[in-house]
């Protein structure tokens, strides 16, 4: 059960589906995780932290919530991993068809099988940018293809998959991995050009799936499978900002927050990460609108999400 009716406690006028540019879908699912349990509590902890976050972003000089963020009903299907993936796919695709910028917060990484499938059906020539400690490329695990260990296997077969931050994998995953599009953490730490190399491999439309264990556990310990040697805050923001500036990010999900009652910093980092990603997506539009409000100039932002369904009727 979610704890708030509006994302981050924003005023009702910015939280209505009809006018909001952004949709946030919580997916409190933890059906296939194998070590640290609790990712099903992640969305609730994220939303609580978001309510206590300042909504002015210093770096972009914007208040992105004014673009409108609609908090959708959580996807609670948990009868089977396959049923959960289908439910996530269906609700994600429905909101994409409404021409919304669709975001999801999990839940374990298996939810991304459904979200990636929906975005791949709706956007041409899609790049999936997978930011994670783990390769998640197993074809099947523990009797299902909808396991968290299989989160991007389907994407490896059907999209332009680029993986960054990887530092843990099984040998079998090498058979599915494109090493030219895989950036291992131990290489990234010595490569000052890794960000540019990643962006050069991308197509125009990009979906980001962000597993929070990509971060070093010294700054985000509250995740199911923490791995040493991860990303840090400002390098991650620098990279994400470049991606949003240079490519058309069509949506994203964030997964694998396993809240710890004794440590709220991880929840807050996840909340800030989500808000920073929205701020990067809409910073040009927000700046245009601020200029309009100041000088009463009537012009329209040119940003589009290039959805195949822009003109579809529900």
Low-confidence stretches: 294-307, 309-314
* CATH top level assignment: Alpha Beta
* CATH fold category name: Arginase, Chain A
Average pLDDT taken over every residue: 91
- Approximate helicity band: 25-40%
What coarse outline follows from CA principal-axis ratios?
globular
Count of discrete domains: 1
Largest sheet: 8 strands, parallel
CATH architectural grouping: 3-Layer(aba) Sandwich
Task: Give the ordered list of helices and strands.
Answer: EHEHEHEHEEHHEHEH
Tell me the number of helical segments per DSSP (H or I, 4 or more residues long): 8
Backbone structural class:
alpha/beta
The tally of beta strands, per DSSP, is 8
What is the end-to-end distance?
A: 28 Å
Largest sheet strand order: 2-1-3-8-7-4-5-6
Strand content: 5-15%
Computed CA radius of gyration, to the nearest angstrom = 18 Å
CATH superfamily: Ureohydrolase domain
Topology readout:
Blueprint: E1 22-27, H1 42-51, E2 69-71, H2 81-97, E3 101-106, H3 111-122, E4 126-131, H4 153-158, E5 160-166, E6 182-184, H5 185-188, H6 194-200, E7 205-211, H7 233-246, E8 248-255, H8 265-295
Parallel strand pairs: 1-2, 1-3, 3-8, 4-5, 4-7, 5-6, 7-8
Helix pairs in contact: 1-8, 2-3, 7-8
